[in-house]
Amino acid sequence: MIMVVGDTAMRDTMMLSPKMWRKYFKPRLRTWLEGVRGEGDIFFMFHSDGNMEPVIDDVVEVGFDVIDPLLE
Fold first, then answer.
1. Cα 39 to the center of its chain, rounded Å
2. DSSP type of residue 10
3. Which tens digit of pLDDT belongs to each residue from 16-59?
């Protein structure tokens, strides 16, 4: 399992808007995960402190198998 640490949220909200996260982070994470996953059977975990609830569906869509923590 590979853990990606991307603290993108604070206690009550995200550090940047979900729109900006989707524009700048989502495509890059997807490309990276797809490339690495092509090397074998690899699981991915995404870690972020804070409330990243607005983009949880996006994190799953990108291909992460585990999200830590889901909610604080």
1. 20
2. -
3. 999 999 999 999 999 999 999 988 889 999 998 888 899 999 99
Rounding to the nearest 10 degrees, give the CA dihedral for residues 71, 5, 45, 23: 80
Q: Model pTM?
A: 0.86
**The tokens 């990108």 sit on which residue?**
62
Domain around 11: 2-68
Nearest to 48 by CA among 2, 15, 1: 15
How far apart, in Å, are the Cα atoms of 39 and each of 15, 23, 32? Answer: 32, 26, 11
Joined tokens for residue 32: 């990276």
* Residue 33, both tokens: 């995960």
CB burial string 23-49: b at 16+ within 10 A, e below: eebbeebeeebeeeeeeeeeebebebb
